[in-house]
TrEMBL record:
GO terms for biological process: regulation of canonical NF-kappaB signal transduction. Residues 115-262 form the MATH domain. InterPro entries: MATH/TRAF_dom, TRAF-like, TRAF1-6_MATH_dom. The lineage of its organism: Eukaryota, Metazoa, Spiralia, Gnathifera, Rotifera. It comes from the Eukaryota. This is MATH domain-containing protein. Gene3D superfamilies: Apoptosis, Tumor Necrosis Factor Receptor Associated Protein 2, Chain A. PANTHER family: TNF RECEPTOR ASSOCIATED FACTOR, TNF RECEPTOR-ASSOCIATED FACTOR 4.
Length: 304
């Protein structure tokens, strides 16, 4: 098409030259008419080329238009697929969290004791210790356990970095009597000897043991009128400096074990065996625990 345009340009120039140099009108008219005729033919050929090119470009544009539409459809489909994948990932994460929660509940149910003895396994010890130090969760809870199948319902709370009185110096251990189905036929106030063992996993004879008798005058050991009684504490359960020196004996595979034993048969002495065990006063300030399924809140107040 470029050659045709160039040829037409030359023909127009020739006609103009003939007109300018015209002396013999007849001869020049014939030459002009011939040149114009040739120019018309070239113009016709050029128009034909233009129509042909338009037709051919139309053929190409149609597939291109189809491909553009298909690409747009593919893009929208890809966006929908990407959205579905993200939704599946979110649901998968939620299901995984629910599965972990269900697993924990099953493990807690399996670990629930009804013979007065209870082994509390505290997992993820390092993480929970850091939480206690930075006061994200000061205390952790045990699953509830029972003194017998129709007996008293009990749970524990542990301050890994100490409570208000012993922060950064001792672990503090709490015992809570909870409301249960058979409280009406049980003897109150609760009279028992309780023994806590912080297990030495390398040498059982070197486990740390603390025992005390329940105080019959304490509200902690009366029949519960709410979900749970005021917690009873051993504020200085275990010195943290001693624990740190022997940590590799008490903590293995990032887990700590506390064994609880209840004794209803031994006669209670007149004087408590452990003067460090004190009732936690009923104050308005509370510390929530990490287990949402256990209604366990420990009053947080100073005692003398």
């Amino acid at each position: 098409m470029y050659d045709s345009l160039n040829q037409m340009h030359q023909q127009i120039l020739s006609i103009l030259c003939i007109i300018r140099s015209s002396n013999n009108s007849n001869v020049n008219d014939n030459r002009i008419l011939g040149a114009i005729s040739t120019l018309l033919n070239s113009t016709k050929n050029l128009n034909d080329d233009i129509h042909r090119i338009n037709r051919e470009s139309g053929h190409y544009q149609h597939p291109i238009s189809i491909e553009a539409k298909q690409w747009s459809i593919f893009e929208k489909l890809a966006q929908k697929i990407d959205g579905c994948i993200r939704g599946v990932e979110i649901n998968q994460n939620l299901l995984y969290q629910q599965l972990l929660l269900l697993k924990e509940r099953v493990e807690n149910a399996q670990s629930t004791s009804s013979d007065g003895a209870f082994m509390w396994k505290i997992t993820n010890f390092e993480e929970k210790t850091m939480n206690a130090k930075f006061e994200q969760y000061k205390s952790i809870d045990s699953p509830p356990f029972y003194s017998s199948q129709t007996g008293y319902k009990i749970c524990l709370g542990l301050f890994l970095n100490g409570d208000n009185n012993t922060q950064d110096t001792h672990m503090s251990l709490y015992l809570v009597i909870m409301q249960a189905n058979y409280d009406a036929i049980l003897s109150w106030p609760l009279k028992l000897k309780i023994t806590f063992n912080l297990l030495n996993q390398l040498s059982s004879e070197n486990s740390h043991t603390v025992s005390f008798w329940s105080k019959t005058t304490s509200s902690s050991f009366q029949r519960p009128t709410t979900d749970m009684n005021i917690a009873y504490r051993i504020s200085k359960f275990f010195p943290l400096n001693v624990f740190q020196q022997n940590k590799d004996q008490f903590v293995r595979d990032d887990a700590l074990f506390i064994k609880v034993e209840t004794d209803f048969l031994t006669k209670m002495p007149e004087i408590s065996l452990n003067d460090d065990a004190n009732e936690l006063l009923n104050d308005k300030e509370y510390t929530s625990t990490t287990d949402d399924n256990l209604c366990f809140k420990i009053c947080h107040a100073d005692t003398t």
